[in-house]
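Quiz preparation item.
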């Protein structure tokens, strides 16, 4: 047991208590951030005249040595230390002696851990943005390719009106654009430095908080030391954003599972992204999409866990907050994995254009257009709706499509119908006439694709 405290204790910590309390098994993950934060702190202590230049140099050298040894696998982070902060400090002291004992001047583990977690999360937000960007690029490529790939659009999972695959994918494009924006917002809001807040009430040393904030790439220092050590809002925001992102991935996965089913056959997942059955030789299962859908629950769980942990905590730091780590790490790892796999699955997926188009032709997806046709000929919409309803019933009884009806049959139901009805309800017309902003018609789609193209250029 290697602890940083103990002076006021007369007994050893019970081993079970030690294990229960320790965080080294999971906070070892941010050893780099912990060392980086300590380096900035030491530079500032020296510039403020709290440490000598010589002490600063020895400490920096020691910290650099620890970092290098951990990275090269020479130095192992073992559970005999209570947490990553104790590990680094104990190692520093054993390397450089007394100067190492000055590292923690004007600092508490409370502001230290707040800093480490922010540094770590900030880096992860950048990586997440990169993964969302890749997904957006793949979606954009597919949209450009499928402006003319007709398919049925659904409501209630019932065929509704014809759309294109580009249009359908465009809906997800918008969702992931918002997800990207949320990550940017979070980054901006979280980018303030808690270092120098001490345990809760600042310190009596003349710390230059602007300097450490600047050295660590923050916009500036946080403005209330109590809030600094007990703020976990940015993690809750991040988990909220990740939950929303997973919800989008999960909906998309669900659609791909349906599209890839034997009944639909709209798409076929690549062999590299499918799995087989141990008993049924014919099977090719969409396990990746199912796992993405399944893992969504894990990320939602993390959000609920942290919200619940934070609820009712009095100011300032409480040990409950140590619980923020494992769940956040897991949610980030899970979302990153899902984003990467989903993007690969989408990139390699084959689209069965003919099947999609044939499906759009069936199921009366042009019924609204038939009604609109009558409206254009002067029939009030409500009457037109009723007339087309009769047409549908007529066709259902004969198992034919509206397009299969003869002119005679059309006119028997309403004399308003003329030869141009066939053109008006053709799949192509139904889609291509929908050119309001955001609609699936080619001219509308091309405008959106151009907007997206310019948007993608702006992403870091
Ligand atoms: N492992 C702790 C955490 O993650 C570090 C802060 C400890 N501070 C304390 N006063 N015990 O929150």
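Solution:
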């Amino acid at each position: 047991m290697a602890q940083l405290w103990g002076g006021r204790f007369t007994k050893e910590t019970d081993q079970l208590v030690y294990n229960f309390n320790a965080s080294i098994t999971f906070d070892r993950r941010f050893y780099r951030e912990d060392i980086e934060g300590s380096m900035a702190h030491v530079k500032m202590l020296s510039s403020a005249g709290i440490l000598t230049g010589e002490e600063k140099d020895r400490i920096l050298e020691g910290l650099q040595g620890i970092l290098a040894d951990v990275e090269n696998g020479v130095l192992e982070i073992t559970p005999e230390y209570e947490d990553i902060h104790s590990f680094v400090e104990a190692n520093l002291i054993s390397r450089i002696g007394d100067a190492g004992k000055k590292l923690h001047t004007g600092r508490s583990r409370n502001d230290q851990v707040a800093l480490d977690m922010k540094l770590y999360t900030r880096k992860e937000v950048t990586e997440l943005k990169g993964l969302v960007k890749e997904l957006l690029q793949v979606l954009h490529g597919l949209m450009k390719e499928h402006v003319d790939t007709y398919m049925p659009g659904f409501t209630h999972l019932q065929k509704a009106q014809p759309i294109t695959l580009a249009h359908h994918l465009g809906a997800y494009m918008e969702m992931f654009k918002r997800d990207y924006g949320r990550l940017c917002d979070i980054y901006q809001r979280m980018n303030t430095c808690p270092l120098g807040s001490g345990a809760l009430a600042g310190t009596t040393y003349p710390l230059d908080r602007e300097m450490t904030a600047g050295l660590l790439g923050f916009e500036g220092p946080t403005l209330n030391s109590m809030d600094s050590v007990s703020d976990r809002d940015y993690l809750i925001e991040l988990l909220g954003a990740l939950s929303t992102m997973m919800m989008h991935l999960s909906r998309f996965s669900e659609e791909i599972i349906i599209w890839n089913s034997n009944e639909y056959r709209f798409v076929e997942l690549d062999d590299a992204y499918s799995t087989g059955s141990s008993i049924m030789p014919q099977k090719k299962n969409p396990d990746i999409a199912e796992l993405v859908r399944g893992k969504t629950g894990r990320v939602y769980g993390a959000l609920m866990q942290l919200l619940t942990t934070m609820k009712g905590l009095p100011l300032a730091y409480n040990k409950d907050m140590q619980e923020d780590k494992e769940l956040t790490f897991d949610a980030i790892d899970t979302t990153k994995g899902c984003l990467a796999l989903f993007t690969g699955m989408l990139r390699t997926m084959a689209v069965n254009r003919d099947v999609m188009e044939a499906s759009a032709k069936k199921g009366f997806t042009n019924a609204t257009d038939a009604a609109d046709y009558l409206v254009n000929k002067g029939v009030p919409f409500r009457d037109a709706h009723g007339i087309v309803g009769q047409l549908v019933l007529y066709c259902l009884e004969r198992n034919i499509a509206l397009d299969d009806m003869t002119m005679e049959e059309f006119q028997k139901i309403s004399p308003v119908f003329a030869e141009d009805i066939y053109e008006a309800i053709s799949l192509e017309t139904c889609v291509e006439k929908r050119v309001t902003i955001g609609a699936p018609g080619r001219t509308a789609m091309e405008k959106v694709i151009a907007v997206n193209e310019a948007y993608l250029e702006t992403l870091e």
